[in-house]
Write a structure and sequence with these properties.
Arylsulfatase, C-terminal domain; binds calcium ion; binds 2-deoxy-6-O-sulfo-2-(sulfoamino)-alpha-D-glucopyranose; 31 strands; 8-stranded antiparallel sheet; alpha+beta; 16 helices; 25% strand; Jelly Rolls
Length: 702
């Protein structure tokens, strides 16, 4: 009965929802859009979301005067993928940007391009992180890659230069500069056109270097610790234990925790950035920095805490710098709000939005970073204000996602949302008074379905075998439940959580008998969602190749396999043993349309994780036969193949372990390369590629 009532209620709401408070539709009202976007800002570090550790007065003001989204999520908790999704309204597998290091195909349809077409003036300033140059912007100035906090370089278009861009270094802190350039653009823009400004901060991304004016915050204070700081990961699958993102073990003393080294010349690896970052700073910046940290550093070195005390110290150092960076971002929001306050006519027509690319672990589960489908990283903060149109202080509890951003902006601008986009316009949720559906009631799903809004969100993370060692996973979240599949053959595990009874996700209930029916229901829902979004990636290994890395899909095709390597150096392999001499061959057919087109035979004589030789085809400019290895990306031999466009090419490799020589043949060419001296037999084989999709025939041995 109650669910019927709820269904009726939400049905009547859905009718009213398409009209705003004054009865006029918001669709097509062509507001200006100021979209402030930060990097790694977790909702639980925003006071409007109930943060227990900091205050964000300006973001809070936005929420008080507008809408706060209670259940907004990303589809892949990583920087580049979230940004590519926001631009395209598509999940990662469909826009092709599945992991950092991919190159965004800027020729795709994006919302800024469509806004530009209908007369919007468009600008993006700050972090971009999609490798290719921005398209669809009248003005852009972006940080290269992750960018620098102090005195950062920006990349700008430059018609006069060879590659059409230039790199300019500016004095100051990235957050302040991004704000300053955004305000300057607002002042200089064409006042007769509606505008889109994307102000995209680097902060509070690792390695959390606050601006001078924020260094004084939290001095001498102790920030409360999260209850799961010393999580031992019992009650969940084995994956959480295997990560490399813990505060206890995976933070660099100098780079992350900014403790000065005793001897700068002895700095190793990532810690060397401590030096290069200081080199960028000017004298005033350095002295403000040292004044803020010197005493604390001296005390740390003197007391030399160990065990849990050392973790506690690292947490305090990390979280304070993170929150100081957040404070800089909050100040930026305040400055943009002040700019609007001073221009009431512009303010009236401007939707201002605050969000961040994904969440972050603030010591929760003992971690920093993101990537997992657990709540802390899955959630994206989302706050929007449009005076007189959105009810002040209202909340949206529906399950929204970053795929919905592009459709929403387009809808507001009166641009029809392309049917190919995965997301939905949130406009029907914007102009009405708040729902009460945040309580995670099981009936919420029924109500959500009845209102025509979605009852679940989809997630797919790909960047396994990379920094922080978080496995690939896909899953589904409803208002109450979460089901996650870790599909790589080395894990092949599921997790399920009841968020109502276990909001911290400490107990995997996948095998719990009393949730069996719900598990079946969610599994089917997940399958349906994968079909709806047409995601057939996340099928790797298929039993034949149990060792994989950087692979989106590996499926049988005929008597061979079709494999999509969604990373540089992706591979599928199996272990075995073949005494020499060995001749191995396979046909390869390259699937066009991926960023780089190639396919390789992977061969190892020393265990699949150790040295490998890669022999294959590369179709980036001309067709080439290429041998790489035994070191990563080391080119051992290469020859151009005269190629008539024949889709299938056979590659034949002969290994002579006595002469330590590899011979490769394809397309009438033959090359040789040395084999590692310690290889006495073939101990592993498979297929490889770089951001490519390839159909391989079966491996044939002689
Ligand atoms: C860098 C960071 C990682 C972080 C990734 C992705 N290391 O590699 O800690 O997970 O970026 O972050 S650092 O040493 O460069 O700081 S993302 O937000 O760009 O996806
Ligand atoms: Ca990020």
């Amino acid at each position: 009965m109650r669910s019927l009532l709820l269904a009726l209620l939400s049905l009547s709401c859905s009718l009213a929802c398409s009209l705003h408070a004054q009865g006029k539709p918001l669709s097509g009202s062509r507001p200006n859009i100021i979209f402030i976007f930060s990097d790694d800002h977790a909702a639980h570090a925003i006071s409007a979301y109930g943060s227990k550790i900091n205050k964000t007065p300006h973001i809070d003001r936005l929420a008080e005067e507008g809408l706060l989204f209670r259940n907004n999520f990303c589809g892949n908790a990583l920087c580049g993928p979230s940004r590519a999704t926001i631009l395209t309204g598509l999940h990662s597998h469909a826009n092709g940007f599945m992991r950092n290091g991919n190159v965004f195909d800027g020729d795709q349809t994006t919302f800024p391009k469509l806004l530009q077409k209908v007369g919007y003036q468009t600008a993006i300033i700050g972090k971009w992180h999609l490798s290719s140059d921005p398209q669809g912007f009248d003005h852009w100035m972006v940080l290269p890659g992750q960018g620098q906090y102090y005195n950062p370089d920006f990349i700008l278009p430059d018609a006069g230069s060879k590659n059409g861009r230039k790199r300019v270094r500016y004095e100051g802190h990235a957050t302040n500069l991004t704000t300053k350039f955004s305000l300057e653009w607002l002042d200089d823009r064409d006042p007769d056109k509606p505008f889109l400004l994307m102000c995209q901060h680097k902060a509070p991304h690792r390695n959390w270097m606050p601006a001078a004016e924020d260094l004084g915050l939290y001095q001498g204070e102790t920030i409360p610790e999260p209850t799961s700081l010393f999580d031992d990961y019992t009650g969940r699958g084995p994956m959480a234990k295997a990560q490399e993102m813990s505060i206890a073990k995976h933070m660099f003393l100098h780079y992350d925790l900014i403790v000065p080294p005793a001897d700068e010349s002895k700095l190793q690896g990532t810690d060397r950035a401590w030096l290069s970052q200081r080199k960028r700073m000017n004298a005033a910046q350095l002295s403000a920095w040292d004044a803020a940290f010197d005493n604390e550093n001296a005390a740390f070195l003197r007391e030399d805490p160990a065990g849990r005390e050392r973790v506690r110290w690292a947490y305090q150092r990390y979280i304070k710098n993170y929150l100081r960076c957040v404070n800089g971002v909050d100040r930026s929001v305040g400055e943009l709000l002040a700019w609007l306050d001073a221009r009431p006519e512009v303010k009236k027509n401007t939707v201002i939005i605050y969000s961040s690319d994904q969440g972050f672990y603030l010591g929760d589960h003992g971690w920093y970073d993101k990537r997992w489908m657990y709540e802390e990283s899955l959630r994206m903060p989302l706050v929007m204000r449009w005076p007189a149109h959105f009810a002040a202080g209202d909340e949206v509890s529906e399950l929204t996602q970053n795929i919905d951003f592009a459709p929403t902006f387009l809808d507001l601008a009166g641009v029809p949302v392309p049917a190919t986009m995965h997301g939905k316009s949130m406009v029907p949720l914007l102009g009405r008074s708040g729902g009460d559906r945040a309580d995670g009631d099981q009936e919420d799903d029924v109500a959500a379905a009845a209102s025509g809004w979605r009852d679940s969100i989809y997630y797919h993370y790909y960047e396994s075998q990379a920094v922080h060692m978080v496995p690939a996973m896909y899953g589904i979240r409803t208002s109450r439940f979460k089901l996650v599949r870790y599909y790589e053959p080395q894990w092949d595990t599921w997790e399920m959580f009841d968020l109502q009874v276990d909001p911290a996700e400490m107990k995997n209930i996948y095998e719990a008998p009393r949730y069996k029916a719900m598990r079946t229901y969610l599994t089917k829902m997940l399958e349906d969602l994968r079909a709806e979004y047409d995601d057939d990636t996340g099928q790797v290994g298929d039993g034949v190749f149990p060792v994989t890395a950087g692979v989106a899909r590996c499926v049988r095709e005929g008597d061979g396999h079709r494999v999509w390597f969604n990373a540089p150096g992706g591979y599928v392999m199996q272990r075995g043993r073949k005494e020499g001499p060995v001749t191995v061959s396979a046909t390869m057919s390259l699937v066009p349309g991926r960023q780089r087109t190639n396919g390789e035979l992977m061969l190892t004589g020393a265990g699949p994780r150790a040295a490998v030789m890669r022999v294959g085809l590369d179709l980036r400019d001309a067709m080439r036969l290429v041998v790489q290895g035994p070191r990563w990306r080391q080119q051992a031999a290469s020859a151009k193949i005269s190629w008539d466009g024949e889709p299938v090419v056979e590659v034949v490799v002969t290994l002579d372990f006595d002469a330590h020589q590899l011979t490769a043949e394809a397309g009438g060419q033959r090359v040789t390369a040395p084999l590692p001296a310690d290889w006495s037999a073939l101990t592993g084989w498979g297929y490889g590629g770089n951001n490519s999709e390839t159909v391989f025939g079966p491996l044939q041995f002689q």
